Amino acid sequence: MNAYRIKGKGRVDQRKPVRFSFNGTAYTGYEGDTLASALLANGVHLVGRSFKYHRPRGILSAGSEEPNALVGTDRGNGRFEPNTRATVLEVFEGLNTTSQNHWPSLKRDVGAINDALYMLFSAGFYYKTFMWPKSFWNKVYEPFIRGAAGLGKSPTVPDPDTYASRFAHCDVLVVGAGPAGLAAALEAGRSGAKVMLCDEQAELGGSLLSETNARIDGASGWDWLKAAAAELAALPNVTVLTRATAIGYYHQNLLGLCQRLTDHLASPPEGAPRERLWKVRAKQVVLAQGAIEKPLVFDGNDRPGVMLAGAARSYLNRYGVKVGNRPVVVTSHDSAWLAAYDLAEAGAKVAAIVDVRPEVAGHLKQRAAALGIEMLTGWTATGTSGRLRVASVRVNPISRNGVFGPARTIACDALLMSGGWTPSVHLFSHTKGKLDWNEEGQMFLPGERTEESRCAGAGNGSFGLAAALAEGAEAGADAAVDAGFKAKAATYKVDGEVPLMGVSSRELTTDRNASKAKAFVDFQNDVTAKDIRLAVREGFKSIEHIKRYTTNGMATDQGKTSNINGLVIASDAVRRPAPAVGLTTFRPPYTPTTFGAFAGYNRSELFEVTRKTPIDVWAEENGAVFEPVSLWRRAWYFPKPGEDMHAAVTRECKTVRETLGMFDASTLGKIEIVGPDAAEFLNRMYTNAWSKLGVGRCRYGVLLGEDGFIRDDGVIGRITSDRFHVTTTTGGAARVLAMMEDYLQTEWPDLKVWLTSITEQWAVIALQGPNARKLFEPLVEGIDLSEEGFPHMSVAEGRIYGVPTRLFRMSFTGERGYEINVPARYGRAVWEKLFEAGQQFGITPYGTETMHVLRAEKGYIIVGQDTDGTLTPEDAGLGWAIGKSKPDFVGKRSLSRPDMLKADRKQLVGLLTSDPNTVLEAGAQIVLDPNQTLPMKMVGHVTSSYWSGTLGRSIALAVVEGGRAREGATIHVPMPGRTHTARIVGTVFYDPENKRLSA
Amino acid sequence: MLVIRCPYCEAERPEVEFAYGGEAHIARPADPSTLTDEQWKDHLFIRTNARGTHFERWRHVHGCGRFFNAVRDTVSDKFVTTYKAGLPRPTEAELEGMRK
After folding, report:
1. Tens digits of per-residue pLDDT, B34-91?
2. Which residues face A284 on adjacent strands?
3. Cis omega (within 30 of 0) on the bond before A273?
4. Which of B34, B35, B36, B44 to probe the A interface (max A CBs under 10 A)?
5. pTM across the whole model
6. Which residue among A394, A419, A444 closes a domain?
7. What is the pLDDT at residue A129?
8. Rounded to a whole number, what is the distance in Å from the CA of A277 to chain B's nearest CA?
9. Residue-wise pLDDT tens digits, A943-965
10. Are strands A906-913 and A803-809 parallel, antiparallel or unpaired?
11. In chain B, what residues touch A885 (CB-CB under 8 Å)?
């Protein structure tokens, strides 16, 4: 076991073995390992199949940029996650992991046939292959695409984990705890500023963790790191967050950090959140994100065992793992030479360093020579072999004028490549900060900033330890000063660092047929250099188009290793400089982030507020079935044992019409309008006239938008001359109050009016039915309930059961009706008393469904159901509610616009189906001629439709073009299977003379 | 998430406390009946849709409840200033000074 582990080397704890499994095989790693380092220690390079061609793939990198090594992880109890990057997943005892994208097995995958059929899968293959014949789409192409789509498998059960979220404010936020970030955090921390330092890795250090040569101020890099971490930990004004990825940089220095809390633990504490999303508002930000190594692009650069040279160095120095016993290095950058040295010194036989540059620095060669490594400068890689792991690399010399010499094949068990480094400018780019192209380094660097931010270190193009420390210290000190503290940058003395240089190149040239080369640019989306060139040949010139056509950089890694290579190749193909071709936009999140982290606490019962009335508990105890109405939950109907909804609603309706029902109307929006100008304010807001409404009287009011369309309605009662009690629809309460405030504050600030929401202050019990008065006349004090003293549409204040009440006489059922407002805290008590007292009349509680049926029988509209924001009062049959003599009200001017006066506007009508037993579907479309050719001309739709037990037949309301003029006409409602017919009638189906209101 | 200064509370508060209220400085005509259909249409529906400096209304709905006006750059999405309802819009020169 751990044949490739070097005893005593690295930062993992080799005294603490950890057992885990990969594809059912048990392996051992050590505490501190990632899944990638532990697999490599066991000699496992093959970890997955690629997305499109199903090519065997290994581990490319040692960080969050990993495009290849994605695995499914199972933490037990339904905790399954696809596409976890093996390079960041920390192993723990009992971890189960599986590879992805293959069938039947990782080593033998049927899908690999795609690799042989690569001609079919070139750039834009979706657009080309699946175009024709059209008839193939449903049966052949779509199932194929769906079957092949996606990486990994989705979890099958709801996420059992919990997620936390937190706000934080600080003076200086430092992103990245490599040398630059550490130096910045130290400086800012010493100044006394409130500092937060975050890093995506499990421990601080960044590139220092993989660096074993350089010394800082006389100490080894690791000793310096230990001291720095200790100093930061000791500063009370500094917060250090590890395993915390800065995923996005938003306006005004708001950054999102996703902190992984328990994924690395074998047995997380009960109830501990899995991740925490931090929203940090920082006065100043220092971005020290470092740089990501670029692969070289050549045929076969994707075989398992081919990896980035810097990653190989990390595995060796940080994890104590040799990625191979016989590695070959292929590079265009000096940094890969260091990997060769370190591996050679660790006992690997480095077969060769192949450098595409004809000349490299003398000191590099001297050290390689001393280690006995063969050097092939001015050579290039033109191919690799090995089915499930690289077995050899084919290399050729190229003369200065580009002539290829004979190929040589060098056996190897690992191939380490480096095409130079790309500064991570992702977060800077989120701020829309300008990126400047650096031609020499073939990279984009942060330019003009838009936020209070600074970039330092490799992420700013300042490569090397000394540069990172110096720039980081300066950025940290400057940030602290700008945040109002005193600071001065410390200086660091770095020894043992060699300057590293390199060249950047497009895909490596080859002596073979380039059109057959599988030289990968984007490993995760299987995009090759020739795909990009093909896209350019087919006319794509902008990188944004090339990206979408080839899918380069569009995988879950957002092209961290592929964007610049893709750009350089595209730039070469279109023969324009790279900045003219452009860089695609980086968007949050920086790395894939769980939906759980974004949702945080907002799930299950905390997903949305459920508003409940004071009577809700009684309804629940008495068997109500509920329905959501805006944020409220309302009693829908009250079934008795053995009743279904139909039976319950029919019984409730019958009881109300014949004797008495009670309904919880507490959800109705209620606004109190007070002040000397209250009536004038209402005159201007509502269509109706209010000045002459007497104290103690109510009126139905219609509220329009300025566009003339119905926004809301409700009954408004005048309590005193300067006090109105306005009711609104349940869902419209907040909107109506906001609209009133808007007009009051900004259009008529001179009006002396005060608006107060009183929705939750009053519980409302509607008593409806012929016996309503009989029931509570003996219970009410202070109000004359006689027909003369308290006629329909009255309001008065008094007491019921000794509790203060605002009593309305009004009806939404067509029966004699009262609405008893009592202070909310007495709502349930009064309700229960009335229910008890009502037993003598056979009272029934009824829910919203019965309320709907009863009001529809009377043709009373529900705003938002029978209206849809395009209906005027005239359209809805409410022309009578318009105060015609009023000079102005909100929406009045719009009612005379030409389109509002057209005869063919949709108007509210009643419908009676030819078959009285047919209940139409609300929302069903209406046509005049059912035999017309498709697409039919639709002239309206059904807005409300119910079974009316009272009438013994179905009824419906609908809007129909020119509907009122069509009264008596037959219309048709085509539905799947059959077409219904119905006759247009008036909207009032029951008691058109309104006799029952006073019955 | 933006940080917005409420000119009534004289305090900076996160965007979640506020509601957007459309373009500012569009007064409702004193007597809409005197407007032609064309003029009324313009009043109702036609907005500046500025690229750059935009005068707009916000309401500190989960705070003091007041409507106020703001100048925001629609390209950078940055606020230049906020001011009380009823005050005249800042001049270009004043805004230039505030951008510095």
Report:
1. 999 999 999 999 999 999 999 999 999 999 999 999 999 999 999 999 999 999 999 9
2. A172
3. no
4. B44
5. 0.90
6. A419
7. 62
8. 15
9. 999 999 999 999 999 999 999 99
10. unpaired
11. none
CATH number of the domain at B1-21+49-99, out of 3.30.200.20, 3.40.50.720, 3.30.2270.10, 3.40.50.150?
A: 3.30.2270.10
Q: Taking Cα atoms as reference points, which of A595, A568, A541, A510 lies closest to residue A247?
A: A595
Total domains in the fold of chain A: 5
A494 bridge partner residues: A216
Asked if residue A445 lies in contact with residue A423, where contact means CB atoms within 8 angstroms, the answer is: yes
From B1, B32, B44, residue closest to A251, measured CB to CB: B1
For residue A565, being part of any structural domain is answered with: no
Q: Is the dihedral angle over the CA atoms A99, A103, A108, A110 positive or is it negative?
A: negative
Q: Provide the 3-class DSSP secondary structure of residue B66.
A: coil
**Burial (0-12, 13-18, 19+ Cβ within 10 Å), A887:** exposed
Which single residue is written with the structure tokens 């993992």? A12
User: Does B3 touch chain A if contact means CB atoms closer than 8 Å?
Assistant: yes
Contacts of A888 in chain B (CB under 8 A): 31-33
Q: Can you tell me the distance from the alpha carbon of A959 to that of A283, in angstroms, rounded to the nearest whole number?
A: 57
Give the best residue of A167, A249, A251 to mutate against chain B (max B CB count within 10 A).
A251
Q: What is the pLDDT of residues B6-37, one digit of tens each?
A: 999 999 999 999 999 999 999 999 999 999 99
Cβ burial of A973 (10 Å; 0-12, 13-18, 19+) is buried
Whether A830 and A775 have beta carbons less than 8 Å apart is answered as no
pLDDT tens column, A585-636: 889 999 999 999 999 999 988 999 999 999 999 999 999 999 999 999 999 9
Q: Which two tokens stand for residue A30?
A: 């050590």
Q: For residue A743, list chain B residues with Cβ-Cβ distance below 8 A.
A: 28
pLDDT score recorded for residue A112? 74
Query: Confidence class of residue A453 from pLDDT cuts 50, 70 and 90?
Result: very high
Residue A469 and residue A446 share a domain: yes
